[in-house]
Amino acid sequence: MKKKHKIISFLLLFLSFMLVACTDEKTDEKATVDEGNETAGEKAPVTQIDPFDHSEKYTITGMTFRFGDPPPLKSPGLDMINERFNVDYKPEIIPQGDYVEKSSAIVASGAMPDLIGFQAGDTRFYQWAEDGAFLPLDDYLSHYATLGNIPDYIYNSFKVDGKIYGIPRYSNPYPVTPIIRQDWLDKLGMEVPTNYEELEKIAIAFTKEDPDGNGKDDTYGVAIGENINPSFNMGTYWDFNSWYHQNDDGDFIPGIISDGRKDLVQFFANLYKEGAMTKDFAVLDWASTNNEFYSGKAGIFVAGVSGMSQEYFDGLLAINPDAKLVAIPPFEAPDKSKGFTMGSGNSGILALNANLAKDEGKIYRALELVDFGKTYFPAEEKNPQNADFDFYLGKEGTGYNMENGLPVQVPTFSSEGLSPSTYFLDNREQVPEDAKITYSDSYTLPELKEMTSSLQEMFETTDLYVDPSHGVQSPTNQEKGTDLFQFLINEQSKMIAGQRPLSDWDALVKEYLAKGGEAIIKETNEGIKSKGYTEREWK
Predict the structure, then answer these.
(1) Distance between CA atoms of residues 34 and 44, nearest Å
(2) What is the top-level taxon of the source organism (predicted)?
(3) Across-strand partners of 31?
(4) Which residues are bridge partners to 353 per DSSP?
(5) Which H/E stretch holds residue 133?
(6) pTM for this prediction
(7) With 0-12 CB in 10 A as exposed, 13-18 as middle and 19+ as buried, what is 69?
(8) In the chain, what are the domains?
(9) Tens digits of per-residue pLDDT, 320-377?
């Protein structure tokens, strides 16, 4: 890892002194990496220019990942962008599965584009930012309606040495949390649980008291699969992935070794003994775990306000037409806290090449492209009367059509490049914190709309914990974190299945610390402190 880090550092240093040309194999057109006179990562002296002056035309290159096939390199949508922003825009969109390998090769060849995207959690972003590969953005973001209003606690995840180097790809802040079969509760005369003791009794009742009323012994409580997933944390206190608990020295520790996690492992062990959770959980993949729940076998699972599968829900209703799913509100923890952990607020990162520092006009133009691509349009403004929205989707009648008052993109909007939206490197709208968004509007199935409404209502009346570890990099975690996590999961799975006693918990934590966990905690807390966190923060 250290050798690779040094190689990247050398290549980036080399780029700051040389003018490098590269050829795009698909277009056979040449793109040039600018030679900067400033030190990499430092901005040229600020000049009094209009950030939105389009009198000069700029060539702007970009690269990011895409789930699905990329759009064509020449198209009406791309022409629309070039004309509107007075640019020669050259985005390279790479299939997600190949992105890390191909983007690393492009950068190593000396051809880093003006804009470069990263998937969430990609440690290359932080490594390259530390090496001076990216432009600090603090002095520019306030000029833009969208970029300038992203909350500081989200930008904090993209700070290196106190400066912002990344722009987040939006992800809604609400986590995936437990849900329960309300129709089964009604059948058994039980209420939505308010603590783990009640949840355990319900899971056992779902297993032994025929909640679907078919006279068969074919139901159970909790659907769970490999890697103890879902975790069924009923609040941040029990969240294995959150840095909430603190040790005797006052340092934050990972939830997976906390007292809350120990209590949760005991809860699962109780269920396993009673047959009230998926018996073969340790070898069940995610698709199969979903099937356990949506085939009507289990009564407790997880869901979110967005990204839900209507097809899965239809399958459940075909088996149990009266199925009704509702959110389980967070439980009060032993320390009196009550609330779930807020999502990171990003599903990807976008950075600007440090070599842009010598041309402030180009910086503003590149950020204008980014800002427009992330624009949030309220539901009532998604129509051809809104000129910006109409442009974004490629004009009514070409890139989209209005159907029952809603914009529906034509099937070939991306494959034929009809819509400008498909070419913005970050085309996920950045929903403002004060936006009045109703997530259930994304669905047509009444039962699914009702469930997501119950989740949104719960989140809007619940505190959400801001995890201070977001964006913090630990070299030891990069080197050993994956193996250490799997070690803990494997040992905790043994405890659940009765193959290792829970009384070994303290010994397990000591093993983790000795294998590298102590260094991870030390390095993570140094990063947390460097970002200015002093107290736990709830929103």
Answers:
(1) 14
(2) Bacteria
(3) 22
(4) 134
(5) none
(6) 0.79
(7) exposed
(8) 58-172+345-437 (3.40.190.10), 177-341+444-531 (3.40.190.10)
(9) 999 999 999 999 999 999 999 998 878 899 999 999 999 999 999 999 999 999 999 9
